[in-house]
Each structure stands twice: as C-alpha cells, then as structure tokens.
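Bug: token stream looks shifted between consecutive jobs. Job 1:
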Amino acid sequence: MAELTIQISDELAQRLEPLQNRLPELLWQLLDVANLPTNSQPTIKTETTDIPAVYQEVLDFLIKRPTPEEIITFKVSPQAQSRLSELLEKNRAATLSPMELAELDVYEQLEHMMILLKARALKRD
C-alpha cells in the first residue's frame, strides 16, 4: 500500500483529525464525485466549476461549523431545489445526459449525508 504525505494548514488538520480513519474512503468518494482519473497522470484543477452548485452550497454551510439546531433546520436554496426538480423530471422522462445523471447522483449522496447529520444532531438535542 502506498503512503501519501501532504502539507495542510493546522486548522484543516484539526478538522480532519476525527475523520483520519476514513480519509482513504473519503478520497475515493471525492474522486468519484469529481470524475477525476485515478490511474493516469494526475491533473490539478484550480476551478470548482465542475462541482454542482448544491455541493458547494452544502460545503459552505458545513465549513461554518453549524450548531445542531442549524443542521436540523438546514435546507438547500430554492435554486438548488428547482434544479433537483428539473433533474428528477428529466430522469422520469429518461432524458438525462450523463453529466446530469452524475449531478443527480450528487444530490442523492448529499441528501443521504444530510439525513445522517440531522439524525445525529437530533440525538444531541
């Protein structure tokens, strides 16, 4: 098994510490979401335009370290909800492009994650 060493800020290291046992799994998920090649020459992306807006929206929410109450009441923006409705309609009509299918998958993964977060937040209240 290969070992990877990276330099990160102290703040990021503190935030990643509780997840250190899951980092390989999370990196695989990141590669799946970003559709990055895993066996070819690595590429460095400096833009986040390929990441669905809803993903960025959830990340922005989580990076603010929300309270359990804020997690419980969190909802994506009306724009994200509208986009999800559009994708679901296209899915029902079987007219999704491969990119749209990947985007819909991101919505599904984020929904699952938020359900788990809200369940844990409810246990803390």
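Job 2, same session, no restart:
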Amino acid sequence: MTPANPNRPGPARPGPARLATYFHVHLVSDSTGETLNAMAKAVTARFDGVIPIEHIYALVRSDKQMERVLEEVAAAPGVVLHTIVDRDLREQLEEGCRRLDMPQIGALDPLVGALSRYLGAALSTRVGAQHALDHDYFERIAALDFAMAHDDGQGATQDLEAADVVLCGVSRTSKTPTCIYLAHRGIRAANVPLVPGQEDGERLTALKNPLVVGLTVSPDRLVQIRRNRLDGLNASRASSYVDHDAVRDETVKARRAFERRGWPVIDVTRRSVEETAAAIINLLSERRSRRLASHW
C-alpha cells in the first residue's frame, strides 16, 4: 500500500457560504416604468445571490427631472437601465452616465432594432405608447369588471356565456387571483367553486361559449394553504375544511368530475398564478386555432 504523501493536498473543503451581492440599479422611464421593472426583475432573477437595490424614476419627461435622476445616480453608483424615447432626454442621460462612468443600457434597444429591421418600419417617438387609452385598454378594464362580478360563483349561469374561460375547483385553488391576472391580459374570466354537498359544477356543462378549466391541487398542499388561511382569520381548525381525509376526498371527487366532463385540468400545486394563467392562455389559443381550422 502506497503511503500517503503529506505534501499532496487533501480533498477540497467546502468554503464559507457566499454572501449576497447587493448593487444599485437605476430604472429610468418616461412612462409608468412597469415594463422596465418587470425586465429588471426577470434578468436579476437569473443570478444566484444577487440582490438589486432598485431606484425607480417614472414619468421622466423634462430636463430638470433628468438632472435629478443623474444626481441620484451619482449618489448611489450602479447600473442604469432605461426606456427613454425622447432623443434629447436620452442623449442627456447617456452623456451624464459617461461623465459619471456608469454603465447605461437601453433595455428595449435590441428588440426594437431587430423588429425595425425586419418590418422596415420607422420607430414611433410617442411616449407611453403601450399605455394608450385604446380599444385594448378598455377591453382590459371590462375584463376586470367581469372577473369581479363573476367571482366565486356570483352571477347567473347564463351570464357566464359571455366569459372566455370559467375556472372551476375546490376552495383555495387560486381561482380568483388567476382570473384577475387573466383580466389584465384582456381575457374575461369567471370562477365557480366546488362546495361539498352544494356545488359540483354540473351547471357549467350547459355552457357553449367559454372554455371550462378544472384546477386541482395536492391534498397536502391544500391543507397547508387552508390552515394558513384560517390562522390569518383567527378561526378554529376543527372542521372538515382542513381535515386531511376530507380534503383528499374533496380533491379526488373534483378531479373525477373534471375528467368525466372532458374539461382540461391544470394542477396548481407547484405553479405560480402567472404559470397557471400562461397554461390557460395556451389552452385558449389552441381552442381558437382549432375553431379557425374548422372554418377552412
């Protein structure tokens, strides 16, 4: 047996846990800043252990406002992301960042440039064009009103014919927040809860226009969610609402009802509201494509 070499390094020992890296990010927009904020969150989420300190400047539309932005950038050095459309304001921001030796990035530039080359179209310099009070805007507002008026089984069954989608599921399967999210995409969504001994979704089988989607969740996760809900309300836990056997029976019956009626089913156990909504939008798109194909 070869003796161990005392000069040979041993196996690497795990080093100390890496501390989070904080950095300043300045989000400069001439509109509401929603697009820029969402892009910044999506990008920084790709880096482990990185935590941005966000400085948000919305509705920046004058030289004086831009001067104030640059003063704050100088006070908290970091990365500058912007969606400034006005040419003069953009030049002011870019020149100010050069003086401060700060990186600045036009967040939409690569996509806008590529699309402009593809379309061969000139760019619009209208500020906040995506937030105009156009038909789509009012459609989103109407969809939000519809979702609130048809939340948790409210409204007559015949009123649901005006919906694009009706979500059905037992209590605490994210029906309401998913409907609200869909409404912000201009989709008219309603939801009907399955209540043991009262509502089993049978009335939805008569609907012709909307897509009915069943939402399910694992019994363990559902019990946890419901217990948290009761704790928040300072309510008693002594009920079938959080009894594990009763909850399992409730979810099994719900899934069987969905399958018996041929409704698409989405398991929300490990899905965020956004992911559930994306799956529903895909189902609506597929349905629309099938209907268009049937007309040709």
